[in-house]
Amino acid sequence: MEYISEAQAVSEVFKLFSALFDGPPPLSAAVRVIDDILPALRKTLDLGERETDLRPECFAAEYENLFLVPSVQRQLDPYSTSYAKEPAEARAKLIPELLMLAEILRIPWQKENFIAGRAYPVMPDHLSVLFGLLSVTSLVDIDADIAGKSALEWNSTLAEEAALTLGEMRNVMLARVGSIRNPGYCELITVALAY
User: Fold this and answer.
1) Element (H, E) at 146
2) How many CB atoms lie within 10 A of CB 41?
3) Cβ distance 80 to 131 under 8 Å?
4) What DSSP string describes 2-52?
5) What are the tens digits of pLDDT across the range 160-178?
6) What is the pLDDT of residue 177?
């Protein structure tokens, strides 16, 4: 059995979060996420046992309603700058930085084609993109210079944006009865925020 480094393990968890916020996993993958991965992360993070049972189809059932269907009542937004005190200013500052980081790392942040049932981030402050960038920058030496910032500075910026977004999303989900109907993404948000 080959072991991976701690940095590689962290990167893999960020890839998982990126994928799950990009769209629901196939049912076979959802079973593994629900039965193995999320409980292992909960244990590692001392979160205790999950309070609700999750079914493999929960992610697919919830994703479209939470993230794809436009609604004036929907307050759950996977974009970090939406939760800033001054969203327009935050977007104007952060977006060019993220675009530059993605270009330097040669990471495509926007899909070429829309895929039904998957997110289509139009701005690089989408949680799936933030976690995708973190999965790469977490493997780089913390002192390495990437476009005038150290990898550690990029990690801090990306993690802060992800934490802000996850925290606000959790607040929205806990404040409404709908969180009971969305146990999969409520669980994912809880675990990702703790991570």
Assistant:
1) strand 145-146
2) 20
3) no
4) ----HHHHHHHHHHHHHHHHHSPPPHHHHHHIIIIIHHHHHHHTT--S-SS
5) 999 999 999 998 888 875 5
6) 59
- pTM score, whole prediction: 0.90
pLDDT in tens, 5-32: 889 999 999 999 999 998 899 999 999 9
What is the rounded distance in angstroms from the CA atom of residue 95 to the CA atom of residue 81?
9
More confident residue, 16 or 3: 16
* Helix 183-194 vs helix 151-175: crossing angle, to nearest 10: 140
First-to-last CA distance in the chain?
A: 26
What is the C-alpha to C-alpha distance for residues 70 and 56, in angstroms, rounded to an integer? Answer: 24
Distance CA 131, CA 16 (A): 8
| Cα separation, 16 vs 59, whole angstroms | 13
